[in-house]
Design brief:
Belongs to the 'GDSL' lipolytic enzyme family. The protein is of the alpha/beta class. It has helices at residues 19-31, 58-63, 89-96, 135-154, 178-186, 191-214, 232-237, 252-275, 286-295, 349-360, and strands spanning 2-6, 9-14, 46-50, 116-118, 171-175, 219-223, 280-284, 310-311, 331-333, 365-366.
Amino acid sequence: MSASLSSSAPLILSYGFSLFPALFFFIIFLCVPHLAYSACGKPPIIFNFGDSNSDTGGIVAGLGIPVKLPNGRTFFGRSTGRLCDGRLVIDFLCQSLNTSLLNPYLESLGSTFPNGANFAIAGSATLPKRVPFALNIQVMQFMHFKDRSAELAATGANNLIIRYDRFGDALYMIDIGQNDLADSFAKGLSYVQVVKRIPSILAEIKNAVKNIYDRGGRKFWVHNTGPLGCLPQKLALAKNISRDLDSFGCISSYNDVAKLFNEGLRQICVELRSETEDATIVYVDMYTIKLDLIANSTKYGFSSPLMACCGFGGPPYNYERRISCGFPGYRVCDQSSRFVSWDGVHYTEAANALIASKILSTDYSTPPVTFDFFCQ
């Protein structure tokens, strides 16, 4: 490892990696938006609900919390409010449809919503349900958005808004639950106590789908949660975990809870399909995609899968709670390197590109429909 330091920039760390995996991944990375040919016969409309995994700037717009460079450095060249060096998975999915990236619902300046809106806010969970910006609150915001759209349509402003009849054609994406589990562990709850909370978390997700369904939504795309125990943040902060590490170096108990949550979410989707006969509800196995990336990182051209690119502290995790990415003292890996984790919690653009390509393959979706099914 070599390091270079200047007085006007954070420490930049560079890590070597073999040429072939890097070249292999670079080819995939360039082609990701084109891996799935979009067969949309009408302009796609997407409404997204979730947390920081899919927040495209809501945390800045809604709470004014600064998200500074180097966030956004890779693709945008500036911070956009995404907790990533570039694009998120949802950005790649939008690009696969040749539609613009989703604007945060709470962005008041310069935003239009021709292809939907993003209600996801970093830090969001399902419970408690009446605390901004819980999933329940996000769904209530959507309901207001839809009602307000109808009011504006009545004034003849159809060119500025989504037509009311298009809400039934839209895709409703949900990616939430990670913070419910992570926060439970952070508060000192035991494995058993966290497991007991899972049914309540799942009930909120089911209620969200049913509330949107009752408002005309018919096409849903639900992501399960990733391997929580493989996040550098959790590995750095958890205590007495040496006997709880699996063969990949991840915290077994955390991942076991994630798998229990995911099995419950899969079952919820099965129930919803039987209760909403005219709806399509797609369950996407993000856990398997992300664990495969971590377990086989070298094959995909990545290095140090359990270490944050941007943070503080160096190996093995480069995470320090008091010195987070973008704040004084942080260190960031060289832009040419390939890390899985960006800041200890969120994935890099390079990782997100690969994850998106796996989603678009339909191999991890139940039922195995293409992402553009809703706009054909």
